[in-house]
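Weekly puzzle thread! Below is a chain. First person to post its structure in token form gets bragging rights.
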Amino acid sequence: MKKATVFGAGSFGTAIASVLTANFDEVVLWGRDAATVAAITERHENPGYLPGLSLPMRLVGDTDLERASAGTELVVVATPSQATRGLMAQVARVVPAHVPVVSVAKGIENDTLLTMTEVLEQCLPESYHPSIAVLSGPSFAKEMVLGMPTVVTIASRWEKTAQKAQAMFSSERFRAYTSTDVVGVQVGGSLKNVIAIAAGMADGLGLGHNTRAAIITRGLAEISRIAMRMGANPLTLSGLAGMGDLVLTCTGELSRNRKVGIELGKGRPLDDILAEMKQVAEGVKTAKSAKDLAARRSCELPICEQVYQIAYERKSPRAAVLDLMGRTPKSELT
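Winning reply:
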């Protein structure tokens, strides 16, 4: 294949672009920052997001939306979830028709409570909707660039689109499965970031492995509960975009959301933590979406609720632990 285009030159956009060079003659990584784009093209490095890692020669940067999109056979949208709508308002006029448009952002839009594929459907003409897909699963950017084996799920309401994208992404070091459950894949990929903040807080408080395991397990129950209310297949949440990504993000040293939680558990203010981070921790804003989704769907998400209160209402992490442990006793499966 000749050309693929990735919008968003952060760590994950860069990693996805790197993966795609296995199957495309040219991969264009669009970004707003001219210095970053120049470094990608000239030095084959993204110094701001993935310093010290060499990028493939086939990967080039560009700041021009139209030039980056011209003649492309695949579009990947890799901007943070809350910035996706703003980007797509510009991209909609330059995206070629009938090429897969794959979102890799893991978040739910605040206020509208739409998933990223729903945002893409609002921004693109109806004729483009059968080409929309989402990629999710346990995938740290640094390990992808280093060529470590990574396995993900690509979901689309149109199975042929998922299969077409699958062929474009898959290589000897990157394996993609397909799904038609766009809701389950996106809810799993989004809410796991909120649960990862909780798991990080437990680590920051020094609460041990028992607590972390409980958060992961009960967190998966919350994710499954709300996803099923939204029409997801429960089996999706036991797969790569559910349990797989949840375990990685709650335990991995490269997890940004877990890092935020660790610092919160140590008593640091959220604003100070975020001010030190160049990359976006999606779970912070998704905590608000999770709280609002729970209210809209009349669904209990107690861990997500506590993360929201800590992040937005300055609740003490220790008080949140006491509230979770003191909830009314109930059956595990209700």
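Puzzle host: Confirmed. Bonus trivia for everyone else. Strands lie at 3-7, 26-30, 59-62, 75-77, 101-103, 132-136, 150-155, 174-179.
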